[in-house]
TrEMBL record, chain A:
It holds the Pfam family Oxidored_q2. Its main location: membrane. It comes from Sporosarcina highlanderae. Keywords: Cell membrane, Membrane, Transmembrane, Transmembrane helix. It is a multi-pass membrane protein. It is found in: Cell membrane. Belongs to the CPA3 antiporters (TC 2.A.63) subunit C family. The chain crosses the membrane at residues 6-21, 28-48, 68-93. This is Na(+)/H(+) antiporter subunit C. InterPro entries: CPA3_antiporter_subunitC, NUOK/Mnh_C1-like. The keyword Secreted does not apply. Signal peptide: none annotated.
């Protein structure tokens, strides 16, 4: 399972990097969203074994629980990546309103600062 | 203790000046400021008797024990001379500035800078710890920068300020390196301790480097060749500043450093050659350049350079005594140092007076160009008298103090001719001749100041303002200095015994008992060679001055025409262009390029180290099983991901992103992570809604116009990045090096009183992280809000409204 997920992570990273290198603003934002998906999954596989034990709720009274630490980290990461995506989207909206383009090549700065 | 406090009093006063200035917005603010230097002068002067009796005062505030940096103040004869100069000339300069500066200037700012400088300068001369000394040293550079750029609307002021800053601060950094070398050799930052133990370390390989680096600091600060070029440009500062910083005090910080380090480095021949060689050359160059100036202030600037060179060369010659060790014969060489200290004091008096006089001329007539001036004697008798005293003292004529120190200078040079270290007699003679020629030119430019400004015919139409004698207030300060010039001539031994002798002991600790360490200064000592040299200077100088228009032409021929400024400016432009070129090479302004740098670096650094260390061994034995439904989810995600690259419509792309997000939520369920699954579902929903909302305002995707090559290039980077991440992930999973800390959190009920482990981690164990996460969310929220709501002035021109 871990191997399968890691390969999936690699694939998602490939997609994300390709999108990030695009010249369209929205594709770049999508790329960053996909990249955070990949990161979350990668974090998940870093725990002490997937599916080994029950959900980390002590009320279950299970013999063993899955690793709770990556879950806590991912929870934080999900929220942060949401914040980043939201901010980037509004930034894209504002950029388009100001400049009339969403092409990053056309958005290149002036020659002298 | 009180000595330590005296460094901080100017800084404290500087804090309060703006507050007072808010109430009293007139020149009278200066009367509050002047209290500080006068009080400090009186305070320091009260130490003269006890210091003259051989006491020294030391006070330490322990600071950084681990590296040996302590706030140690040390008052001995040498610091006392400088302390008195700083506060004494400081008082006079402030008094002068009260009448000199117009009330329209921002006086509050001016006095804050001036006090800042005064505190920093006192810090330099009173600190015993090298690191503390360095900090104050750089502070003087910074306050000098601020004062030169006081009239910052002028381009030349800004240029002069920048130039002085660049040169003195680079020298300062070299000096810092020298200090650190000294510390690494001797294990101490304290000057006194280094002086006491340096004998054991003179053979260290770093010793000479440390010496040269420290000298670099001293030479840049004291405007010695080839670093003298900043001083003439620093003359853009208001005249009180020029009189104070760039003639009487700051430029003498380098001299102070040389004097202070003479007991450390003075035993080496390199020190003699470096200090004296540079000094004599600067003396000659400065005096030659001064003669050709037409701006009186520039003339004084070059004359200051030249006089600083003179003092510098004397300190170099004085070090011979240390090289030869203590004996009755070697004491004679200490006279050079004595002459240096004496001339230092004299120079501050006559040069300070001259600067103030030039300031008065500029202030009253609106010009200081000697080609437009002349005949001022009749209109400005007091100013003329002061100028006469100052110039004649500078020229080395009796009955002024400059005569005494100039004679001693010649005598020291005559003594030095017999030195063994000057392997052949010719070097000693060469130095002597160079110094004598320089003195002739010093005489010539001193005459230019007096005769071309105050004699001849006065032409009202050539000056900007109607001619008047300066106000009494403005004349007080230069008059006091001019009086001192004469008083010192008649009572030189008061200065010698009370100020110079303790300083000599500080420079020559091993010679403390020697009787001839403080020679008795006599104005008349018979027709000896030194006097003949002076007579020669006067005769040749007068001839040269009379016939100046016939030989002025030499300044247009090669070596005299050369100007180091050109080289400096060219170097600066070259540096700017070079760094600009380098930056432009990689800062292209395309987001894509920057991302490429990041990813390529990641691939090379991480992928490379995986390959290099051979850590790509995998271990799949511990993998969990794969159920068919899980496999299907992964397959769906892979399909959705790949499809995102190729879709034509943004709507499809966002739906595919949704597929990814919800699939991850499903995977979280499989992985026994209920909290994550819930959060992911909600966040994914909101994100998709946000995307759709933004699509309403944004244009439809255009087809990517990138060429095939770019696409392949991007693809290669993307695939490489994916492979590196996969390999890295697999390598980490197969080779766990450390025990997981996760078990700790399973005790969450006892430790944090919660049964949901994930929640306790977020809300208790790592609560600070969560709080900061909320802060990030909050900041992003503010960002979103401002970007949407904030209306710029050109709103009506926006695309949306068109």
């Amino acid at each position: 399972m871990e191997t399968l997920i890691t390969v999936l992570v690699g694939l998602l990273v490939t997609v994300a990097v390709y999108l990030l290198l695009s010249r369209n603003l929205i594709r770049v934002i999508l790329g960053s969203a996909v990249l955070s998906h990949a990161a979350h999954l990668l974090l998940m596989t870093m725990g002490s074994g997937l599916k080994k034990g029950s959900a980390p709720l002590l009320g279950e009274n299970a013999a063993s629980y899955v690793d709770a630490l990556p879950q806590a980290l991912i929870l934080t990461a999900i929220v942060i990546s949401f914040a980043v995506t939201a901010f980037l989207l509004v930034l894209a909206y504002r950029t388009y309103k100001k400049t009339g383009t969403d092409d990053l090549y056309a958005l290149r700065g002036f020659d002298d600062e | 203790m009180t000595i330590t406090l005296s460094i901080f009093i100017p800084f404290l006063a500087a804090i309060f000046i703006p507050l007072i200035y808010q109430r009293i917005k007139s020149r009278h603010i200066g009367w509050f400021v002047i209290i500080v230097p006068i009080a400090l002068f009186v305070f320091l002067a009260s130490y003269i008797p006890s210091i003259a009796n051989g006491s020294t005062y030391i006070h330490t505030i322990r600071w950084v024990e681990s590296v040996g940096i302590h706030f140690t103040t040390y008052l001995d004869g040498l610091s006392l001379i400088f302390g008195l100069l700083i506060t004494g000339v400081g008082s006079l300069v402030i008094l002068y500035s009260i009448y000199y500066l117009s009330e329209r200037e921002s006086l509050g700012r001016f006095y804050v800078y001036l006090l800042l400088f005064m505190g920093a300068m006192l810090g330099v001369v009173l600190s015993d710890n090298l690191m503390v000394l360095y900090v104050f040293w750089e502070l003087t550079s910074i306050s000098s920068f601020l004062l030169i750029a006081f009239w910052y609307h002028r381009k030349k002021s800004r240029y002069g300020a920048q130039k002085s800053m660049l040169i003195t601060v680079s020298g300062g950094i070299a000096m810092l390196a020298g200090f650190i070398m000294l510390q690494s050799m001797t294990g101490s930052f304290s000057v006194r301790e280094i002086v006491a133990t340096i004998g054991q370390y003179t053979d260290e390989p770093l010793f000479i480097f440390a010496m040269l680096l420290v000298l670099l600091g001293a030479f840049t600060k004291s405007a010695q060749f080839p670093f003298h070029i900043w001083l003439p440009d620093a003359m853009e500062a208001p005249t009180p500043v020029s009189a104070y910083l760039h003639s009487a005090t700051m430029v003498k910080a380098g001299i102070y450093l040389v004097a202070r380090f003479t007991p450390i480095f003075g035993g080496e021949t390199v020190w003699l050659y470096a200090v004296s060689g540079v000094g004599v050359f600067t003396l000659l160059l400065g005096s030659l350049n001064a003669v050709k100036q037409t701006d009186l202030k520039a003339l004084l600037a070059y004359s200051t350079i030249s006089q600083l060179g003179l003092v510098m060369s004397l300190f170099g010659l004085g070090s011979v005594a240390l090289q030869q060790g203590y004996s009755t014969d070697s004491v004679i060489y200490t006279q050079a140092t004595f002459a240096a200290l004496f001339h230092l004091v004299n120079h501050s008096t006559f040069k300070g007076a001259l600067f103030m006089v030039i300031g008065i001329v500029d202030h009253e007539l609106g010009t200081r160009d000697i080609r437009r001036l002349g005949g001022l004697m009749a209109f400005m008798p007091v100013t003329f008298t002061i100028a006469l005293i100052g110039s004649f003292s500078m020229a080395g004529l009796p009955p002024f103090n400059g005569f005494l120190s100039k004679e001693m200078f010649f005598e020291a040079l005559l003594n030095a001719r017999n030195l063994e270290v000057f392997t052949t007699n010719s070097i000693g003679t060469l130095v002597l001749v160079a110094a004598w020629i320089a003195s002739v030119f010093t005489f010539v430019y001193s005459m230019i100041i007096v005769f071309q400004t105050f004699f001849g015919e006065f032409h009202q139409e050539r000056v900007e303002k109607p001619i008047n004698e300066a106000s009494k207030g403005m004349l007080i300060a230069p008059s006091i200095l001019a009086t001192l010039v004469i008083v010192i001539f008649f009572f030189p031994n008061v200065v010698g015994n009370y100020l110079l002798r303790p300083a000599m002991i500080a420079i020559y600790p091993t010679f403390a008992g020697a009787e001839r360490l403080t020679p008795h200064i006599k104005a008349w000592h018979g027709f000896n060679p030194a006097l003949w040299m002076t007579i020669g200077v006067v005769v040749l100088g007068t001839i040269l001055y009379r016939f100046m228009r016939y030989w002025r032409g030499i300044y247009t021929i090669a070596p005299l025409k050369w100007n180091l400024d050109t080289a400096f400016n060219a170097g600066l432009t070259w540096l700017e262009n070079g760094s600009h070129f380098l930056t432009r090479l990689y800062m292209k302004g395309y987001l894509k390029d920057y991302l490429v740098y990041i990813f390529v670096f990641f691939i090379i650094a991480v992928g490379g180290s995986i390959l290099f260390t051979g850590s790509y061994s995998f271990d799949f034995s511990d993998d969990s099983s794969i159920a068919i439904n899980e496999f299907l989810i992964v397959l769906a995600m892979a399909g959705a991901g790949l499809a995102m690259i190729f879709v034509k419509s943004r709507m499809t792309a966002i739906i595919l992103n949704g597929v990814l997000g919800y699939s991850i939520a499903l995977l979280f369920v499989v992985f026994r992570a209920p909290d994550l699954a819930l959060t992911q579902t909600i966040v994914e929903t909101v994100t998709t809604a946000l995307f759709l909302l933004c699509f309403y305002f944004l244009p439809e995707w255009k087809k990517e116009r990138s060429g095939k090559k770019t696409k392949i290039f991007n693809g290669i980077i993307a695939i490489s990045a994916g492979i590196v991440v996969t390999v890295l992930g697999l390598a980490v999973q197969g080779n766990k090096m450390f025990e997981s800390i996760s078990v700790y959190f399973e005790d969450s009920y006892r430790l944090a009183g919660g049964k949901n482990i994930v929640n306790t981690i977020l809300g208790d164990f790592r609560a600070f992280d969560t709080m900061l996460e909320v802060v990030v969310l909050f900041i992003a929220g503010i960002g979103v809000f401002t970007l949407i709501k904030l209306k710029s002035k050109k709103e009506e021109q926006d695309i949306e409204d068109q």
